[in-house]
Design brief:
The chain is an alpha+beta fold and about 170 residues long. About 30% of the residues lie in helices and about 25% in strands. It is built from three helices and seven strands; from the N terminus they run αβββββββαα. The chain has a five-stranded antiparallel sheet with strand order 1-2-3-6-7. A two-stranded antiparallel ribbon has the order 4-5. The protein is globular. The structure holds ligand K1U and zinc ion (ZN). Ligand K1U binds next to strand 1 and helix 2.
């Protein structure tokens, strides 16, 4: 198990579109295991493979208080979404320290393969539904700040670039 480096906004690799996984083999299982270790180490509730510079449709999530209910979504697809939407406060491990409101479906049904390659449909609402939509956006190369106004987004971009320069020098 390894802790993987997480790409930080505005890294252009965050905008790559992830490709479907063809087989849940040992390589994919090792990636899932590393992603779970990385998510728990970073105190996140989710992580998409895109964020660790792997451009394949793999997501891990754990929204439990006890941090003991990992969820693995391989090739996730939304098969149903509620008509109702809500603005929820979101954060992102690739945009540390920034939180803002994003409109999401209240509930979604997501079809995905699990860590054993079995197809499942997960019915989600609340934080799990929000997190699933956030992570599936990552797989499409979309970071949550792209829902914000150009003014806010540019301020965040400048702040992130300064933070990264400060951490490097
Ligand atoms: O994808 C990521 O960067 C992980 C991200 C997931 C997420 C959090 C909140 C709403 C939607 C998606 C995080 O885990 S950010 C850090 C975090 O633990 C958190 C932040 C705000 C609310 C709840 C948790
Ligand atoms: Zn994120």
């Amino acid at each position: 198990m390894a802790i993987l480096p997480i790409l930080c906004y505005p890294d252009p690799r965050l905008h790559k579109v992830a490709q479907p996984v063809h087989e849940v083999d040992g390589r994919v299982k090792a990636l899932v295991s590393d992603m779970l270790a990385t998510m728990y180490d970073a105190h996140g509730i989710g992580l998409a493979a895109t964020q660790v510079d792997v451009h394949e449709r793999v997501v891990v999530i754990d929204v439990s208080e006890e941090r003991d209910q990992p969820l693995v979504l391989i090739n996730p697809e939304i098969v149903w979404a509620s008509e109702e939407t809500h603005v929820n406060e979101e954060g992102c491990l690739s945009v540390p320290g920034i939180y803002d409101g994003v409109e999401r479906f209240d509930a979604v049904h997501v079809r995905a393969l699990d860590a054993q390659g079995q197809s499942r449909v997960i019915e989600a609402d609340g934080l799990l539904a929000v997190c699933m939509q956030h992570e599936m956006d990552h797989l499409m190369g979309k970071v949550f700040v792209e829902y914000l106004s150009p003014l806010k987004r540019n301020r965040i971009k400048t702040k992130m670039i300064k933070q990264q320069r400060g951490a490097r020098d």
